[in-house]
Design goal:
Its cofactor is Mo-bis(molybdopterin guanine dinucleotide); [4Fe-4S] cluster. By secondary structure, this protein is of the alpha/beta class. Strand 1 and strand 2 form a beta hairpin. It binds iron/sulfur cluster (SF4).
């Protein structure tokens, strides 16, 4: 019997395969050579996973008001209080706030309970902050949330455009794959579109350091210079091309504050390339017009035919290990399970499948509006699962006020003390990576197994189990009578094919009859299960016309002014994960960058009298933080950058999201986390 367990990294959306081998001293972690996302490679975070397995700081027992209680007590009391709120104020007075860290089976259980049986749409997720604009973009263009690319395409393309993506730090193994592809095919060109010169620019043939937030104009202007598609090839084509006709080279270069020769080079390379891919992530999505930016990108791929072929397509990279799985089960408040919508036929279909007459009929509250509704007292109970919104949501002082006044805050987590859990009435101890068992889906729609190789510590339980126990106490026992994650996965797979008839792109019904052994042995597989990605995308295209969405480029809502003269960009650093609740405890991951910093151009440093490594207070109209100065010509003058990770444990005054206003894209509800007007002063 082997002592190696093959599993999947719990950090970013690349979804690397990981091997955990038990040794005398614990577990040795290495990359899984058989996993096609990474072929054995791991980045520094993945390689350090073995150092995150300790139990220090773990939540190991249920608690109510900070006191340890028995599971029965915690579950009974939580269900009693939830039922009381539902009876008195209706189902919309309760909400779940989930996470791209949850496994698909956990997510499915949470979505089923909220939208299928409690009867409200109020389950949303921290993935709202990550890729909800990309979902809107795909759905508007293709009629489905369909990612039309795979990682293999990187090895077959002629041009890679990275826009709003520092893949070298945020998706490191994918970036390494790109580096290798470029070495093997030196004629392949790489364009990086980003206001900052990041590590990703190391392989760029062209770096367009554009004025922050103006990305859409580059693609709308590109649409204007591409050969026009056949008449009526796409819905919306006339209007989209009419707008694009206004975006001449001069106007685009002026709007983006770029050299027109550089813009022309980019457009020429794209137009001439036989195959081209555009990779995009938070720099596009986290914007008050993020959905439109996504469609501006998709438009040029549709219009030029650089889609549905090997080496082509608009590729949204997801930030979290299971952001895609959340999309698949309906973990976003404005969608139903298995890519169904809030439409009568889908609602009725779900009711038949789940045997429920209580299916939510209207979308629920999206992340930012959910916490605003808690603040107004409209939502009276929130169950936060596997996420730390006090650090990750914008305008965190309002989030804190909201939770402080919320009558019932339930937190399921692996960490006992987080910025969020100090507001918890009830704490449920959840299983961590290495202990839990289920599936995740990566950026290219590949479903992989996360497998347990450690026993459950203390009284920690799987998230799906906790949810099912509450569901049973609320009176929905039969529908939640699962004994193992395998049963949930098969139910989810069966639902994906239920009355589908090719009308929904997400279909994994071929996996619905896996037995337990087959589920345990499941190899990574992309959905839909029976076809290759591009041929499937082609056949999906045959279902109907795609849309060129008319996009009018817009500036960010954040404006620098006399009082707040700098624009703050926020993002990830190489060695930390989200709010540092795990990676912050690994000494070697702290060696790269050990404290919050503010990257600032030398001209601005001089202007504001700050010196290298000195401390500055950074303030916006929403809050203030303290950070160490990093003077760097990689910034554009007038712009600064700070990482989004630090929680209160590691930097008492370092929560950068506290500076960010809750301004959201009107279609996706995704906050504009990339642009905030700030000022600085020496600390
Ligand atoms: Fe994990 Fe992402 Fe690193 Fe791969 S690239 S090892 S998935 S953090």
């Amino acid at each position: 019997m082997t002592n190696v367990v093959r599993t999947t990294c719990p950090y970013c959306g690349v979804g690397c395969g990981v091997k955990a081998q038990s040794t005398e001293n614990g577990f040795q972690i290495s990359g899984d050579e058989q996993h096609t996302a990474n072929f054995g490679r791991l980045c520094v975070k993945g390689a350090a996973l073995g150092e995150t397995l300790g139990l220090e700081g773990r939540l190991l027992h249920p608690e109510i008001n900070g006191e340890r209680v028995e599971w029965e007590t915690a579950l009974d009391e939580t269900a009693r209080r939830l039922q009381g709120i539902i009876d008195e104020f209706g189902p919309k007075a309760v909400a779940f706030y989930a996470s791209g860290q949850l496994l698909t089976e956990d997510y499915y259980a949470g979505n089923k309970l909220m939208k299928g049986f409690i009867g409200a749409g109020n389950i949303d997720t921290n993935s709202r902050l990550c890729m909800s604009s990309a979902v809107v973009g795909y759905k508007r263009a293709f009629g489905a949330d369909f990612v039309p690319c795979s990682y293999e395409d990187l090895e077959q393309t002629d041009l890679v455009v990275l826009v709003g993506s520092n893949a070298a730090w945020a998706h490191p193994v994918l970036y390494q794959r790109l580096v290798k592809a470029k070495q093997q095919r030196p004629n392949m060109k790489v364009v990086v579109i980003d206001p900052r010169r990041t590590a990703t620019c190391d392989i760029a043939d062209l770096h367009l350091a554009l004025r922050p937030g103006t990305d859409a104009a580059l693609f709308v202007g590109l649409l204007n210079v591409l050969p026009p598609p056949e008449p009526n090839a796409f819905d919306g084509q006339t209007a989209a091309l009419e707008i694009a006709a206004n975006w001449t080279l001069e106007k685009t270069a002026d709007f983006c504050q770029l050299d027109s020769a550089d813009v022309q080079t980019f457009w020429h390379w794209f137009a001439q390339a036989n195959r081209a891919m555009t990779l995009y992530t938070m720099g596009i999505n986290q914007s008050s017009s993020g959905s439109d930016k996504c469609n501006a990108i998709i438009n040029v791929h549709l219009a030029s035919g650089k889609i549905g072929r090997d080496g082509c397509g608009p590729f949204s990279l997801t930030g979290q290990p299971n952001a895609m799985g959340g999309r698949e089960v309906g973990g976003l408040a404005n969608q139903l399970a298995c890519h169904m919508n809030f439409e009568p036929a889908d609602i009725a279909r779900l009711g038949r499948f789940w045997g429920s007459e209580r299916i939510a009929e209207t979308p629920g509250l999206m992340a930012v509006e959910l916490f605003e509704a808690i603040g107004r007292g409209e939502v009276k109970a929130v169950w936060i699962m596997g996420t730390n919104p006090l650090v990750s949501l914008p305008d965190s002082s309002h989030v804190a006020q909201a939770l402080a006044n919320c009558p019932l805050v339930i937190v399921s987590d692996v960490v006992r003390e987080t910025d969020t859990s100090r507001f918890a009435t009830v704490k449920f101890p959840a299983l961590a990576w290495g202990e839990k068992n289920g599936t995740v889906t990566n950026s290219e729609r590949r479903i992989s197994r996360q497998r347990a190789f450690l026993p459950a510590p203390g009284e920690a339980r799987a998230d799906w189990w906790i949810i099912s126990q509450i569901a049973q106490r609320l009176g929905y026992g039969e529908a939640f009578n699962w004994q193992h994650s395998h049963e949930i996965f098969c139910e989810h797979a069966a639902l994906s094919g239920y009355e589908n008839n090719g009308t929904r792109a997400f279909d994994i019904s071929g996996l619905a009859t896996l037995d337990r052994e087959q589920y345990d042995a499941l190899e990574p597989v992309r959905w839909p299960v029976t076809s290759t990605i591009n041929s499937t995308f082609k056949s999906w295209r045959a279902n109907g016309k795609f849309q060129l969405l008319p996009v009018e480029p817009a500036l960010p809502q954040a404006n620098a002014d006399h009082y707040y003269p700098l624009i703050l960009n926020s993002g990830r650093i190489r060695d930390q994960w989200h709010t540092m609740t795990r990676t912050g405890n690994v000494p070697r991951l702290m060696q790269h960058i050990s404290m919050p910093f503010l990257e600032i151009h030398p001209q601005d440093a001089k202007r504001y009298g700050v010196t290298q490594n000195s401390l500055v207070r950074v303030a916006s109209r929403s809050g203030g933080v303290v950070a160490k100065v990093l003077i760097s010509a990689n910034q554009l003058p007038g712009n600064v950058f700070a990482p989004m990770h630090w929680n209160q444990q590691f930097a008492r005054k370092g929560q950068i999201n506290g500076l960010i206003k809750s301004v959201c894209d009107p279609h996706s509800g995704q906050p504009e986390s990339k642009q905030t007007a700030v000022r600085i002063q020496r600390w």
